[in-house]
Amino acid sequence: MTNYLQERKSNTGFVLKDFVLANFIIPDTLEITIDSPSTDINQQIEKLWLALEKPADKLTNTSLLPLANPYVVP
Question: Looking at the whole model, is its pTM more than 0.90?
Fold first, then answer.
């Protein structure tokens, strides 16, 4: 927060996006796609369920609250 306030105050051309990119690790986003959509809703849900399942989290030095078991992200 101190760095942000100092940078913002001292830099007249301050760009928030540049500050964030220089000071934070931005996680990659993953786009979920299903190659062969099915007309059967049950088959479609089964395919999506597998795509939405995430493995258990690893402990890291982040604000993430790690989950010990696999979980589904809706």
Answer: no
